[in-house]
Fold this sequence. Notes:
The chain starts with a helix and ends with a helix. By secondary structure, the protein is α/β, with parallel strands linked by helices. The strands form 6 sheets. Strands 2-1-10-9-11-12-13-14-15 form a 9-stranded mixed β-sheet. It has a 4-stranded parallel β-sheet with strand order 4-3-5-6, with helices on both faces. Strands 16-17-19-20 form a 4-stranded antiparallel β-sheet, with no helix packed on it. Strand 19 (373-382) and strand 20 form a beta hairpin. The model has no long low-confidence stretch (mean pLDDT 97). 33% of the residues lie in helices and 27% in strands. Residues 189-190, 193-196, 217, 237, 239-240, 272-273, 297-299, 399-402, 432, 435, 461-462, 466 line the site of methylmalonyl-coenzyme A. Methylmalonyl-coenzyme A (MCA) binds at residues 189-190, 193-196, 217, 237, 239-240, 272-273, 297-299, 399-402, 432, 435, 461-462, 466.
Amino acid sequence: MINLLERATSFKDRVALVSNGFSYSYDALLDTSQSVAANLLKGKTDLQEARIAFLVPPSFEYTAIQWGIWAAGGIAVPLCALHPLPSIQYVLEDTKAEIVIVHADFHTFLMPLEKEIGVKLVALEKVMQTNQCILPQIDLVRRAMILYTSGTTSKPKGVVTTHANIEAQITTLVNAWEWEKDDYILNILPLHHVHGIINVMSCALWSGACCEFLPKFDAERVWAILQSGRLSLFMAVPTIYYKLIAFWENAAIPEQKKMSKTTSKFRLMVSGSAALPVPVLEKWREITGQTLLERYGMTEIGMGLSNSYIEERRPGHVGLPLPGVEMRLVDSHNLITEENQPGEIQIKGPSVFKEYWQKEAATKQAFTEDGWFITGDIAEMNNGLYKILGRDSVDIIKSGGYKISALEIEDVLRKFPGVDDCAVVGLPNEEWGEVVSACIVTKANLDTSEISEWLKNDLPAYKIPRNYIFQSDLPRNVLGKVTKNEVKKLF
Ligand code: MCA
Ligand code: AMP
């Protein structure tokens, strides 16, 4: 049994998960995940890294399925509930998943794929029916999970982590942030990304703590839960803190006082996945008394840098490498050892992913010859702590904590009738970090709401441009390459 599941045997009747109004013990989670494993194995001794996709909202069922796949020797491929069918089809074809475990709410939506690509849909209830069998021994070096991440290629790449990678990602954080079994955390993040899966859910379950799911973010409901008194930890992306602050500001003064009083008792609140604007950190501190701990991570590495749990948490900075993480800053020629010199972050260590799924060349390109993972993020050391300065690629946009490839949106947008060419950029925005914006070259008279509606056939809502401009040509350099920094200035 992998260590995360093995540890759960000692937490027995402690509450592991709170989901849809019910509490589930560690014993219940283990029992159900073993049934899932037996139902998936169907007489086989080991799934031998078969890819098992699942489209299930954050819930007890989600976790039981993830653990069941792991216990049976499969690779878990969580699908995103916000994605339109073509994005899901891409993941299923790329992973060659033969089955998708599906929640009833998504069954009709996924049905066309049974015919289209021959994938088999299996109802969640069926795979959770009580069953038992002897489970395989799983070596930690085996592949455990594939998460899709956008990058500098149009199509997202599957980031493969092993059980050992996942364990390293979890234990680093459990130690650094002093997780304990009496902790209680709310999970409001999607469960197809590291932030929600590892930092929140898996760290809680490793520790014998409790994780409560709220599948859809809603500022009013989050504030109600934050005030319940049962939570000790909270983790979110900067956009969520921004939205919670806006809700607090609109509340009546007695309500504000109540909100502020309960949140001041939390043990720790963390922000990450995108730069935390200093005014957001300051406002949150003013209303809750909590200094957000900002950390830096990436799907390929888990968490890399973190401000201190005990010592200084400096606004606008991401702290130092976490224990077990090796980090260096490099510019085009040299290793950077001095303060205030920008360089690219490169990372080594047991939490770094194994490979991009079936993309040997891309995997090779992502590492230096001596094995450092090239993040593409630029940072500098500033008075003893690191500060993220930006990214080396203008084609990557961060909006609401989601990483978005401008190239992917451009590829779809170019197919819209009347679009001769286009360039997609991220414009700075207080609430979202960056907002997807499109500059379109056209001779036609195009309607932007029609374009947005049309794009939704292929792209999830968070990738749809919020600003459009029309131009007769795109700014280019002498080599003919579109200069995106010039495009940004056009808005
Ligand atoms: C939604 N809207 C947007 C965007 N998204 N507008 C501009 N830019 C966007 N990106 C609009 C919608 O169209 C809608 O507009 C309104 O906002 C509400 O939409 P809804 O979908 O309900 O939004 P939400 O539920 O409030 O979503 C905000 C959110 C979500 C909760 C912040 O974006 C989110 O869950 N983000 C977290 C992503 C995450 O976990 N990333 C971690 C990956 P209208 O009202 O006009 O219709 S990073 C990671 O894992 C690494 C390792 C790390 O470091 O952590
Ligand atoms: P992803 O792998 O999709 O989840 O996104 C990882 C990227 O998010 C990193 O490469 C950074 O660009 C960005 N990121 C994560 N945490 C922070 C942070 N605290 N400050 C700035 N950027 C961040």
